[in-house]
Automatic annotation (TrEMBL), chains A, B:
Domain (HTH hxlR-type) ranges: 14-115
MF-aspect GO terms: DNA binding
Official protein name in the record: Transcriptional regulator, HxlR family
Organism phylogeny: Bacteria, Pseudomonadati, Pseudomonadota, Alphaproteobacteria, Hyphomicrobiales
Domain of life assignment: Bacteria
SUPFAM superfamilies: Winged helix' DNA-binding domain (SSF46785)
Keyword Amino-acid biosynthesis: no
Record keywords, A-Z: DNA-binding, Transcription, Transcription regulation
Keyword field contains DNA-binding: yes
Length: 123, 123
DNA sequence: CTGAATCCGTTTTGATACTG
DNA sequence: CAGTATCAAAACGGATTCAG
C-alpha cells in the first residue's frame, strides 16, 4: 500500500475541532452543565462559584464573559443592593449541553477506565 | 427554599473532570482518533504529523510522550535505518476512543450550531 | 527519518487583595 | 454579592539546533 496520502485531512476549522475548543477551556463545559441542571437554565454567580470546587472568582467571571461573547449564555443584572447577577443558557447554549451530557454520562459509566489512567489530576 | 446547599458537589477528582483533562490537551483526542482510524490502531510519526494539519513535530512528540505515560498509547522503535517509530493504541486507549467518536459524531451532525458560535477559532 | 533539547514569547490559569 | 487589579505560575507552541 502506498501510505503517502494524508486521507485524514482534518482542516483546522472542521466541526470536531470547533467543539474541542469549548472543552479546551477548562471551565466552560462545567458551567454549561451546572446551568443546565437548574430550573430555567439560570444561576447566580454565587451558586456557580459554590457548585464548582476549585474555580476562582476571577476565572468564573472571565469564563462567563467569554461565553457571553460566544453567545452561549446571557447575563442579567438586577439593580438591587446588594448586587445580584444571574446567567442563563441561551438557545445556542442549550444545544451545546447535549454533547456535554453525552461526555459526562460516558465518564460516569466508565469510572473504572479513568482509575486506570496513569496520570493523576495535576498534583 | 433554602438555597444554601451546593448540591452539585463536583469533587476535583470526579470522573467527568478526569475525562475533561483528556480533551483539554489540544491534540490528545485527535491523535487517539487518527490511531483508531488506522488498521491495528497503529501509525508512524510521519503519518500522524501529516494527518493533523497545524501540529508541530515538537507538540506531537511531547503529546505522545504524555499519552504513553498515561497508558493511552505504546511506542515501538524499529531498529532500522532510517529509523522507524510507530505508536499503537493500548487497550486503555481503545476505551477512550469511544467518547471521542461520540463527541466528534455530534460535532459533524451539528455543524450549524458551531457556525452560530460567535467566536472564531483563534485567528 | 525520528526526535531530543534548547531558547523564547504567548496564552491560560490561578491566588490574593481590593472596590462598589 | 459581584467584579476588578495585580502578580505569579503553568501550559502552549514556534524556531532552531543537535544526534542516532
Amino acid at each position: 500500500m502506498e501510505p503517502g496520502s494524508p486521507d485524514h485531512e482534518w482542516r483546522e476549522d472542521c466541526a470536531p475541532r470547533r467543539v474541542l475548543e469549548i472543552f479546551s477551556s477548562k471551565w466552560t463545559s462545567m458551567i454549561l452543565h451546572v446551568l443546565q441542571s437548574r430550573l430555567g437554565g439560570t444561576a447566580r454567580t454565587g451558586v456557580l462559584l459554590r457548585s464548582l470546587p476549585g474555580i476562582s472568582k476571577k476565572m468564573l467571571t472571565q469564563t462567563l464573559r467569554d461565553m457571553e461573547a460566544s453567545g452561549l449564555v446571557s447575563r442579567h443584572v438586577h439593580g438591587t443592593v446588594p448586587p445580584a447577577v444571574d446567567y442563563s443558557l441561551t438557545p445556542l447554549g442549550r444545544r451545546f449541553v447535549e454533547p456535554i451530557e453525552l461526555l459526562y454520562g460516558w465518564a460516569r459509566d466508565n469510572a473504572d477506565a479513568l482509575d486506570a489512567l496513569a496520570v493523576r489530576p495535576k498534583g
